[in-house]
Amino acid sequence: MELINLRSDTQTLPTQAMLDAIASAPLGDDTYDEDPTVHRLERLAADMLGKEAALLVISGNMANLACLMAHAAPGDEVIIDPESHIFYYEVGGLANVAGLMPMPVQSRGGRLDPDDVAAAVRPRNLHYPVPRLLCLENTHNRSGGRVTPLELHRELCRTAHSKGLAVHLDGARIFNAAIAAGVRASAYAEDVDSLMFCLSKGLSCPLGSMIVGSKEFILKADAARKRLGGGMRQAGIIAAAGIVALESMVDRLADDHATAQRLARGLNEIPGLSVEMETVETNMVYVEHTGTGLSTSALLDKLKAAGVLASGRPPGHFRFVTSRHQDAAVIDEALDRVRKAVEA
Ligand SMILES: Cc1ncc(COP(=O)(O)O)c(C=O)c1O
Fold first, then answer.
1. Residue 256: how many CB atoms within 10 A of its CB?
2. For a substitution probing ligand 1, which of 137, 198, 313 has the most ligand atoms within 8 Å of its CB?
3. What is the pTM of this model?
4. What is the CATH code for 12-248?
5. Ligand 1 centroid – CA 172 distance (Å)
């Protein structure tokens, strides 16, 4: 029985077109700024997001960290949602590598409230660190891939800028957000000072993330990337797959949203499981399983034995993420296996 892997869109494999592009990409030394394929990808990414310049980075985590370091100096304060990926899942790099002071502001359903952000920016005073940056995340991973609507996003940026803060957007899945909101990704990029997005995840590259911003900002992020050990040589082998992703894999993310809806509807018909449909906005489905009477780890083991992989979100929840590897037929098969596992 082939496993149906719904743990994460980070588990997607490169397409044949990507592998072909990698094999034939013209290469050079990127640290000498001489890799033509990297140049092509960086120009394409900057143009798609409507920014002056772009930088290829090895991972989303490093891209976020390079942006934090480029925006702020050790001791400065960053307004950030404690449920954000940067705060929750990036090994405290914000503090122990960038040396920044987090000022946590809780989001609701992945959305920050501009009034909460404004209230968190304290007036200058000898006792306080200098507030420099607001971090946003869209789609928002820990809230289940939820989308911040464009109007709210713009208001958050206006609020931060009016207080003298820069804005960084962790847009690991910005194209999912844009598709769900029915806008171009560049609309989300317009008001932020830096944005990072991932070529891996739903776009299916084996690795790579992009930072976009002004030319001046990208020079700073490039220096931070180098300081982090992220300078690369023949990085065109990564960029080649990235070009295929940006040219041919963006629009199809809508299919992942449709399969997530199908999965969520089916799960709601299985006794003991429930999904709040209004939270399923992109390719993630958070499932409440308390009705099964099982612990999250016991339930994940049962699902695995039945041939379906999920990620735990205890207490009482697990997560499915859809990707190009699951069409409607695979989703129906997954639902069948989940039903049998839960009923057993
Ligand atoms: C919202 C968000 N930001 C950043 C990252 C980090 O990306 P990477 O795992 O490539 O370092 C992830 C990874 O899942 C993510 O979900």
1. 24
2. 198
3. 0.98
4. 3.40.640.10
5. 6
